Amino acid sequence: MAQLRRIQTDTSEYYVAVSPEGVLTFNDSQSSQSSQINPRKKTLNLVHNAGERTEAAEHATSPNFRAESLVKEAIEKLKLAQDRVESAEEERQKTLAEVKAFSDRLEEALSNRLQEIDAVLEQANSRLATAERQLAAAEERVKTTELRAIEAENALRRMEAEFRMRIIEKIPGWNRISNSSGR
Fold first, then answer.
1. In whole angstroms, what is the distance from residue 7 CA to residue 15 CA?
2. Per-residue DSSP letter, 182
């Protein structure tokens, strides 16, 4: 739909219709009066009015042109901004993928390391249990050996006492001394 603009100058008043296609039409409010003026003046008025109308037409179309150029510029800026947003989103997705890959590798490495540590700990616990069993067996052997040593010592003392008694019994006159002291 065409936009109608009223343009008023010092000498005339007229309307300019600007269609969406950019076509201008003029409507002079003084056209009925101009038929009564002499032809020279009429020609001058027409030339003058044509100049004013051309200037008015430029002014009438310039806001539309400016608006269109502003719209085009805004659209270009929006496209550039959209491209930057898409690029930033792609970078974000790429970074997230890299972080996830790193996290997965780290998690796998930690899991492997924990399994290794568990295996080493299990071996150490097994060795410790074996060492404790060996220590308990060694302590038992020591106790057994100590008891045997005590028994052997006691047996040796008894044997010494018996040997002394046999030796003393073989000494002449020992019986008399021991009998008289026993009284």
1. 6
2. T
The vertex-132 CA angle with 127 and 134, nearest 5°, equals 95
Contact of 54 with 47, CB cutoff 8 Å: no
- Mean pLDDT score, 131-140: 96
CA–CA gap between residue 17 and residue 6 (Å, rounded) = 9
What are the backbone dihedrals phi and psi of residue 9, each rounded to the nearest 5 degrees, phi first? -120, -175
If you search the block for the tokens 């060795």, which residue do you land on? 127
CA-CA distance, 12 to 26, in Å (whole number)? 12
3-state secondary structure of 15: strand
Q: Is there a contact between 49 and 43 (Cβ–Cβ < 8 Å)?
A: no
pTM of the entire structure?
0.39
Which residues have CB under 8 Å from 169's CB, separation 6+? 175
